[in-house]
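INFO batch 0412 | record 1 of 1 | parsing
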Amino acid sequence: STAMSSETDYQANNQWFGEMLRGYAPNIDQGLVTVLASISNACSNISRHLWTADGEAKAGSSNTYGDEQLDIDLYADKTVFDHLRATGKISVAASEENPTEVQMGGKGYSVAFDPLDGSSIIDSNFAVGSIFGVWDSTHLLGKTGRDQSASCIAVYGPRTHLAIALNGKVTEGEAVAFDLILKPEDGVWAISKKVLTIAPAGKVFAPGNLRATSDNLHYKALFDHWVNERYTLRYTGGMVPDVYYSLIKGKGVFVNVPSPTAPAKLRLLYECAPVSLLVEAAGGLSIALTSMGIPPITGVLHPVSVLDVLMDDMDSRLGVCFGGKSEVETAVRFLFP
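INFO prediction complete | emitting tokens
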């Protein structure tokens, strides 16, 4: 069974989260504070579990999408659902492991999440993560990423971090992104970077789905550009740590470009939309790609922000480009010639 934090820990963390979040958004809704605090508690539980869990133990099941599930995926999924349900503030929640709008018995917010992104690299002890999007809504379908109130990614590496974005409607100004670190000795979070900012230019690249260069010549040309311009490669195969690298280093570009034989795998609702809010809140850009580079909004033939793509299906998948503004604009020149 998943361990819920003790009531006193939960209250202490909730109080700290409230004070910390009000520093960014003085009039933030207490319900949103409660939801984000519960997400942080779930992440600290998952982090502890990862230290001792068997990274290869198969659950003997597949999720709806046919991905083989590990015990650790199901633990993380249950942990997040349990913590969210306990808040009484969640109308519906959906996860990559459980991709339906699950009624949560509360009201106020809806949450979409990927409980453990990168579980296929966990046995090699690479960093992995969790992804969360929070909407001020009773449902998820029919929304866009821009409708989110907040999003966050947890990174479980040598240290555990939680990068959070608050949308402008929450701060009553500009969107903001910042980073927390978990102090493992007492399970308490602390601010590690008050503001996350991605510079427009920075010669670091993370090329996901690289096999697509075999039959997407636009992607091949972009990859050759990065190599010829002597960019630094920083790529682990986990979207969370690879995008987090750009957030913390303050520069770089991440792409996951599809092709006819290597289709898009990243899911809009659980992965792309929440990460896009973080990237754009940090001053970067996010661009949506489909298999042939045409954006996934009918009739639109120019690049579009991932935040503007409608969630009309619990399993919509996208190619994406995230990063510094001028780096993304360069990628767009190659991918949308």
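INFO post-check: The first strand starts at residue 58 and ends at 62.
INFO record closed
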